[in-house]
């Protein structure tokens, strides 16, 4: 299967601090790849580098298209939806306005966008209930659903998710991951998932990479890694 | 006495409309860059001169005003792109100095081109009272109506258009806005352009009242700041309400404050003659409003409390 | 599979909250530091200047020293303690008028007014600093700006006319017109005044340097860099912040008194908010948080607004060898044209300074020294 995202020798830095030291990985078309690792390993930086938000070098190919030198806004337009750490909700705007913003990078076809918003509400009835509420008043789980729905409004080729489990109760996290699994299965949206909750991530993902202080120390199929007890004990803490 | 009171309230509303415009300009830029543009008034003054010059060259005001406003929009947009973009990550004090520099540049340039003598500007709405009323004049009615129309237009723009939503998003959360494809840099420049345009409207409306000269806008800008602070720097609607309130308060204070204070002292048996002392310090009152609000409730009447995270 | 290295956590990559300015780092306890050596040379220069320059220059030079003290005062507040002020013209005014009242109404000798003015100005600053505690950054800038704009008007109100002289102001030395040289010394009053001002400046400067090296100074800087952490370390924020305001007002107030003595009169309209802006700009040009820069700030306050005069000299100097001098209107005509653009030129120069030397003279010096060190290491 060809790769929707192919990253080669990616280096990234914040000022003088080198965070990524030349990592390479792939996300398959319609697949879910997860990046695991401890705090500060460079997982978030990887996602930000793909979106052009940090100084980077190397090669990033999206569906064969070289996006290494592009600005964030343009990368988004090529179909990359990034749900950042903390969800990045527009807290002062309404739920529905947040969804409209998700479609900002698409051509302004009002009919299609309205259709997609209705579909989001069908998929996430809780959001429909709160469509005119300020997004900041939504609960953590609802904001996560909103973030996913907003990302979907782009009709993205690739979704980047940064720690979707962060700050959520275990039950809600379970729900979110079920939603993600269904999404991947029904729509074939490719996903690159950064997570600290390794067990859930490995359940959802097809492939996994382990990052440690800016380098990839292990890679393989998610099932294999999940089954390997020594790897789990050494790297994943369970 | 009550007719005088009503007249002062109406007059306060009329000048308040102008302060509301300036306050709105100030808040729009504040939302984009979290700084106060001290040169906003001078830019508005410059726009007003452009309008005046067009009319002096024979253009009817129906053409001159929109032209001046459009030019101001472009000017504001370009100012942001050319002068502020290179220093957008610079420390706050650098920005303050650049604002000061812009103030000096616009003020001096206007004086150089059109010199410092006062020019009379005829009101496009005509002189005299409005429909025979003793409460309100034609120009005052014009000021209030024009301002309200503009505010409604802006509200519609921000609520119902795509660009308006994008601008609001860029102001609320620039990083998230980038992640949905909004060109934040362009939105910021647009915000500046709109603020400059609104300032132009304010200047054009107030010129017949305070007469056109290069130093006309400083006190109006200060009243605008007072209105913005009173309403809340994070809330455009608050800025507008604050502007109107400041206008009314300032007018009433100028007329009645001496009387109020003298009466208060008389009530406790002290005879005090203020000789119109407090009428002279209308501006000081506006500034006291700023200070009092900032100390008691910095986020203003409608603003949001800004929590500092460590 | 690559070697696994369990290295220590690298520093968090989240961005720091944007600083209001980039202050020059705290002084190292090195007596022979570049800053100190330059200061001594400059001091030497300041002492000998009156003997070499024309007498006509004595007045502006004295004014430069006076303004340098004012800039120093602001720098202690903003550069060292991180609190903004766009209103220091108010403290200048308080110092000037207190001095005038002490001389005229209380009969104190002008030289002795300084310590009293210092105390009065400190109290004023401290009292203003207390409610200002709740204000940060922009809001504090606005409040101080409001204070600056209001000051001339307040000084003119009828109630205070007896002391302030109202709209017309007051003379300090109605009998002698100039401050009298004490002890009957046979010195030109202008020269004496210059050295008196210079002496006060040196004393204040040394005290300021001692202050920033003291515990109090370190507390001020801690509050500037991270107020929440400072409070967590046990620093009493209200007390220190109000004290910083007091000290800053005190220094600027003394400058105000010296200003009054130099000009020999006080007038409410001499202290409009434009002066506060000039002080702020002077601080930025000298280098925020870099005390030696105050002299450069003082020079900028005296000479920058009237750069226009020099611009036309410059234009003529370039035009003459090119043979196109005739194209320009002659001397004074052109000068009056350029004068009308004075503040335009001032604004352009300011923007250039912010683009090219955003940390002011202090930053430039630091960059030069760093580069020199690299060359020689």
Question: How is the secondary structure organized here?
Answer:
The complex is a heterotrimer of chains A (238), B (310) and C (377).
Chain A: E1 3-14, E2 17-28, E3 32-36, H1 43-50, E4 55-62, E5 65-66, H2 72-77, E6 80-83, H3 95-102, H4 110-123, H5 125-129, H6 140-153, E7 158-162, H7 170-187, E8 190-195, H8 198-204, E9 207-212, E10 215-221, H9 222-227, H10 229-236
Parallel strand pairs in A: 3-8, 3-9, 6-7, 7-8
Antiparallel strand pairs in A: 1-2, 1-4, 4-5, 9-10
Chain B: H1 2-33, H2 40-56, H3 61-84, H4 92-114, H5 138-160, H6 162-172, H7 174-179, H8 184-210, H9 218-231, H10 236-267, H11 282-296
Chain C: H1 34-52, H2 58-80, H3 88-104, H4 110-132, H5 137-156, H6 161-164, E1 170-171, H7 189-213, H8 215-225, H9 227-232, H10 237-263, E2 265-266, H11 273-286, H12 294-303, H13 307-322, H14 331-340, H15 342-356, H16 360-376
Antiparallel strand pairs in C: 1-2
Structure notes:
The complex is a heterotrimer of chains A (238), B (310) and C (377). With 238 residues, chain A is an alpha/beta fold. Chain A is built from ten helices and ten strands. Chain A has helices spanning 43-50, 72-77, 95-102, 110-123, 125-129, 140-153, 170-187, 198-204, 222-227, 229-236; strands at 3-14, 17-28, 32-36, 55-62, 65-66, 80-83, 158-162, 190-195, 207-212, 215-221. In chain A, the strands form two sheets. In chain A, strands 6-7-8-3-9-10 form a six-stranded mixed sheet, with helices on both faces. In chain A, helix 3 packs parallel to helix 6. Chain B is mainly alpha-helical. Chain B is built from eleven helices and no strands. By secondary structure, chain C is mainly alpha-helical. Chain C is 68% helix and 1% strand. Chain C has 16 helices and two strands. Chain C has helices at 34-52, 58-80, 88-104, 110-132, 137-156, 161-164, 189-213, 215-225, 227-232, 237-263, 273-286, 294-303, 307-322, 331-340, 342-356, 360-376, and strands at 170-171, 265-266. Classes of the chains: A alpha/beta (238), B mainly alpha (310), C mainly alpha (377). Chain A binds chain B through residues 51, 53, 72-73, 76-77, 81-82, 84, 88-93, 97, 100-102, 104-105, 108, 150, 154, and chain B through 162, 165-166, 168-169, 172-173, 175-184, 304.
């Amino acid at each position: 299967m060809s790769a929707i995202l192919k990253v080669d020798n990616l280096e990234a830095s914040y000022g003088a601090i080198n965070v990524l030291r030349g990592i390479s990985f792939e996300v398959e078309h319609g697949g879910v790849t997860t990046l695991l690792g401890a705090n500060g390993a460079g997982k978030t930086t990887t996602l930000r580098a793909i979106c052009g938000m940090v100084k980077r070098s190397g090669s990033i190919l999206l569906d064969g298209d070289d996006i290494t030198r592009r600005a964030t806004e343009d990368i988004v337009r090529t179909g990359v939806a990034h749900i950042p750490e903390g969800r990045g909700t527009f807290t002062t705007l309404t739920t529905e306005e947040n969804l409209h913003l998700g479609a900002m990078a698409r051509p302004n076809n009002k009919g299609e966008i309205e259709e997609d918003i209705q579909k989001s509400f069908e998929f996430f009835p809780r959001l429909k209930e709160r469509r005119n509420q300020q997004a900041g008043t939504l609960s953590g789980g609802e904001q996560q659903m909103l973030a996913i729905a907003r990302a979907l409004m782009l009709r993205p080729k690739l979704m980047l998710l940064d720690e979707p489990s962060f700050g959520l109760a275990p039950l809600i996290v379970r729900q979110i991951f079920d939603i993600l699994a269904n999404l991947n299965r029904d729509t074939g949206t490719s996903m690159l998932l950064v997570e600290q909750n390794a067990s859930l991530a490995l359940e959802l993902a097809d492939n996994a990479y382990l990052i440690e202080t800016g380098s990839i120390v292990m890679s393989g199929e998610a099932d294999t890694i999940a089954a390997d007890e020594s790897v789990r004990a050494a790297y994943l803490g369970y | 006495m009550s007719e005088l009171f009503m007249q002062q309230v109406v007059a306060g509303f009329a000048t308040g409309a102008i302060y509301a415009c300036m306050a709105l300009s100030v808040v729009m830029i504040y939302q984009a860059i979290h700084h106060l543009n001290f040169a906003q008034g001078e830019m508005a003054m410059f726009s007003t001169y452009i309008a005046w010059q067009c009319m002096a060259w024979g253009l009817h005001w129906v053409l001159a005003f929109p032209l001046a406003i459009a030019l101001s929009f472009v000017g504001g947009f370009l100012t942001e792109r050319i002068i502020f973009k290179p220093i957008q990550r610079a420390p706050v004090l650098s920005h303050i100095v650049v604002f000061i520099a812009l103030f000096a540049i616009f003020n001096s340039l206007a004086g150089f081109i059109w010199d410092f003598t006062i020019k009379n500007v005829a009101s496009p709405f005509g002189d005299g009272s409005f429909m025979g009323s003793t409460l309100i004049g034609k120009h005052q009615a014009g000021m209030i109506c024009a301002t309200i129309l503009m505010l409604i237009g802006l509200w519609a723009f921000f609520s119902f258009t795509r660009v308006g939503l994008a601008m609001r998003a860029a102001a609320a959360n620039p990083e998230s806005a980038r992640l949905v494809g909004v060109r934040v840099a362009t939105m910021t420049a647009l915000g500046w352009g709109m603020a400059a345009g609104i300032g132009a409207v304010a200047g054009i409306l107030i010129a017949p009242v305070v007469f056109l000269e290069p130093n006309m806008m400083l006190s109006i800008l200060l009243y605008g700041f007072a209105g913005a602070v009173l309403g809340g720097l994070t809330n455009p609607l608050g800025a507008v309400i604050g502007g109107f309130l400041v206008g009314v308060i300032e007018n009433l204070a100028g007329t009645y404050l001496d009387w109020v204070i003298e009466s208060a002292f008389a009530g406790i048996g002290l005879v005090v003659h203020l000789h119109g002392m407090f009428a002279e310090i209308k501006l000081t009152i506006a500034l006291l409003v700023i200070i009092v609000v900032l100390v008691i409730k910095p986020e203003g009447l409608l603003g949001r409390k800004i929590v500092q995270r460590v | 599979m690559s070697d696994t290295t369990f290295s220590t956590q690298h520093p968090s990559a989240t961005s720091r909250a944007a600083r209001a300015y980039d202050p020059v780092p705290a002084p190292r306890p090195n007596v022979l530091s570049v800053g100190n050596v330059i200061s001594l040379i400059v001091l030497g220069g300041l002492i000998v200047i009156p003997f070499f320059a024309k007498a006509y220059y004595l007045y502006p030079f004295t004014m430069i020293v006076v303004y340098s003290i004012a800039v120093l005062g602001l720098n202690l507040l903003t550069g060292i303690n991180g609190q903004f002020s766009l209103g220091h013209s108010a403290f200048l005014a308080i110092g000037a008028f207190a001095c005038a009242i002490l001389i005229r109404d209380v009969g104190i000798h002008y030289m002795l007014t300084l310590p009293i003015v210092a105390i009065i100005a400190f109290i004023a600053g401290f009292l203003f600093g207390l409610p200002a505690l709740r204000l940060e950054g922009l809001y504090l800038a606005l409040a101080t700006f409001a204070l600056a704009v209001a000051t001339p008007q307040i000084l003119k109100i009828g109630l205070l006319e007896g002391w302030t002289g109202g709209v017309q102001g007051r003379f300090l030395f109605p009998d002698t017109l100039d401050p009298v040289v004490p002890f009957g010394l046979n010195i030109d009053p202008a020269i004496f005044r210059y050295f008196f001002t210079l002496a006060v400046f040196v004393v204040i400067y040394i005290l300021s340097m001692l202050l920033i090296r003291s515990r109090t100074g370190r507390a001020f800087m801690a509050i500037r860099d991270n107020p929440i952490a400072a409070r967590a370390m046990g620093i009493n924020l209200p007390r220190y912040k109000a004290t910083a305001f007091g000290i800053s007002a005190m220094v600027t107030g003394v400058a105000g008194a010296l200003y009054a003595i130099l000009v020999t009169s006080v007038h409410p309209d001499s202290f409009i908010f434009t002066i506060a802006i000039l002080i702020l700009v002077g601080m930025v040009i000298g280098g925020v948080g870099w005390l030696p820069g105050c002299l450069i700030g003082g020079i900028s306050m005296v000479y920058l607004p009237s750069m226009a005069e020099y611009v036309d000299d410059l234009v003529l100097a370039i035009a003459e060898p090119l043979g196109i001098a005739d194209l320009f209107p002659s001397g004074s005509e052109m000068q009056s044209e350029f004068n009308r653009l004075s503040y335009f030129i001032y604004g352009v120069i300011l923007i250039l300074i912010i683009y090219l030397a955003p940390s002011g003279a202090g930053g430039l010096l630091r960059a030069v020294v760093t580069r020199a060190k690299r060359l020689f290491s």
